[in-house]
Amino acid sequence: MTRKADLLPGTLDMLILKTLKRAPLHGYGIAFSIKTLSHDVLTVEEGSLYPALQRLLLQGWVKAEWKMTETNRRARYYRLTAAGRKQLSHELSQFDEIIAAITRVLQNA
Amino acid sequence: MTRKADLLPGTLDMLILKTLKRAPLHGYGIAFSIKTLSHDVLTVEEGSLYPALQRLLLQGWVKAEWKMTETNRRARYYRLTAAGRKQLSHELSQFDEIIAAITRVLQNA
DNA sequence: CTTTCACCAATAGAGTATCTATGGATAGAC
DNA sequence: GTCTATCCATAGATACTCTATTGGTGAAAG
């Protein structure tokens, strides 16, 4: 009935961009990083991740490049562009604002 | 483009339930309360609110009753049921967990 | 007395984000 | 040689929210 909620809708792009800010990474690595850092609370399904990466490419917020991984595999590395960096900071501050607002409602309601 | 984001998807039910926990209220009052408490950051559009209330009714988390307001108007008052109270506490703890997880990712990524 | 504003309800249709399910493919371990 | 972990990606369904609209009433202002 209620949403399954592996993550909060609307936050995926932000999480991906933030992950890529540290270093360029391939899809699988992005998902793994988010899952690990969140202590397995946030699971990014591949069916969510790759469409999201396509969106980010279209927006020009990331660029992609085929490379070899350390384990000798072909992988598509995504890296943040300047526009992506700007977008990330925008999404971060907006997220903060919304969370603060929700917190106010939850405390006073 | 990016989502307009009057609020975070997935949080509306929780905000409504929490608002009704304080006291039964009609739709207009719920929207007004959320908007006011959030300092105008969160705006619940009527096209989001009423479908959400229908969902909550169907789930049995709220009950509705027609009454007169203090200003002598017909209004449909919604109040939290026992099941709704339980659902609310579930959603609250899940929300906390997800926010904590997102925060971890944002700080370490 | 009539006009306007704040109050109050609800639905249809569109758009967007995410999930489920699926289909490949390869490196290295055992 | 088979299994597991690593890697990519799409199609279709589902769920949630927004835009836009319709419809109505009480009360205060003019």
Descriptive account of the structure:
The structure is a homodimer of 109-residue chains. In chain A, 58% of the residues lie in helices and 15% in strands. Chain A has a three-stranded antiparallel sheet. Chain A has four helices and three strands; from the N terminus they run H-E-H-H-E-E-H. The first copy, chain A, has helices at residues 12-22, 27-37, 46-59, 82-108; strands at residues 25-26, 62-68, 74-80. Chains A and B meet through helix 1, helix 2 and helix 4 of A and helix 1, helix 2 and helix 4 of B. Chain A binds a DNA duplex (30 and 30 nucleotides) through residues 3-7, 9-10, 12-13, 26-29, 32, 45-48, 50-55, 69, 71-76.
Write a concise keyword list for the protein shown above:
DNA-binding; Arc Repressor Mutant, subunit A; 3 strands; alpha+beta; 109 residues; 3-stranded antiparallel sheet; homodimer; globular
Explain briefly what this protein structure is.
The structure is a homodimer of 109-residue chains. Chain A is of the alpha+beta class and 109 residues long.
